[in-house]
Design a protein that fits this description.
Layout (H helix, E strand, L loop, with lengths): L1 H17 L8 E5 L3 H7 L4 H21 L4 E8 L7 H20 L4 E5 L7 H13 L7 E8 L1 H19 L3 H7 L2 H5 L12 E4 L18 E4 L9 H13 L7
Parallel strand pairs: 1-2, 1-5, 2-4, 3-4, 5-6
Length: 253
């Protein structure tokens, strides 16, 4: 085992040296998939996999720092997840909340919750807001923690926010409809003011977005890997960056 770790370490360092910082992504999104399957392989309850996955998140953010990634969006809990049995959902929310608290405690990243917080338990939503405020002055990367998140929900919330804004301003609906642009909607997304993701990674072998950053991912490069999230290593991340750097991005085609 130790010899294999040495080999992977040497390979990872060589891979890292080969990356050109000028072509690395500014914003990386990641769908942290495979926690339950990982736990099942050990005959353990799903909470065991979610805890292992949460441990990997803090480590992953350190890898992003090493490569100068400016924005990271972590898909931690979808709106679909909220429909799971309470016996599974309650510990999952607790693990997610603790994971975000650990990121905040590191004092290295700015926490930015993205999602329909009103769908979460009130205490969890309040805690996430507190962690965002507590890290607002940190100069490191922005970490979007997607919790209670769904891409369709985000777009609906953005349109709703836009309509309310113009209702307060007294804009006639016909005038709003005639002048509406994609930029108007983008200005009301959870990630407003941030660059769109350059790269989205999904672990576990599944090859779909599952509602993740639907609006923002129009021109995003997608990378799918077989490894389950708790087993995701830095070398896997570096391979994703290498693959991204080798692509010729074709915006709009």
């Amino acid at each position: 085992m130790a010899f294999r770790d040495l080999l992977y370490g040497a390979y990872g360092r060589r891979l890292e040296r080969s990356l050109d910082p000028s072509v690395l992504p500014r914003h990386v999104g990641i769908i942290l998939d495979g926690n339950r399957r990982w736990a099942k392989a050990f005959g353990a309850p799903s909470a065991h996999g979610h805890r292992a996955g949460a441990d990997r998140v803090v480590e992953f953010m350190g890898w992003c720092d090493d490569e100068g990634i400016e924005v990271v969006t972590l898909y931690l809990l979808s709106t679909d997840n909220l429909h799971r049995p309470q016996s599974e959902l309650a510990p999952l929310i607790e693990i997610v909340e603790d994971c975000v608290a650990r990121l905040a405690a590191a004092r290295r990243w700015r926490i930015h919750p993205v999602g329909a917080l009103e769908l979460l338990p009130a205490a969890t939503a309040q805690r996430l807001r507190e962690l965002a405020r507590a890290t607002a002055d940190i100069g490191g990367a922005v970490v979007n923690v997607a919790i209670g998140y769904g891409g369709r929900q985000e777009i609906a919330d953005a349109v709703r926010s836009l309509l309310r804004e113009h209702a307060v301003a007294g804009t006639p609906i016909e005038e709003l409809a005639d002048g509406l642009t994609v930029d108007h909607i983008a200005a009301h997304l959870y990630t407003k003011g941030q660059p769109d993701p350059d790269l989205v990674i999904r672990t576990s072998g599944e090859q779909r977005l599952s509602g993740f950053l639907l609006w923002q991912s129009a021109h995003t490069e997608l990378y799918f890997c077989e490894v389950l999230w708790p087993d995701f290593r830095k070398v896997d991340f570096l391979r994703a960056l290498r693959d991204y750097a080798a692509r010729e991005r074709r915006f709009g085609s």
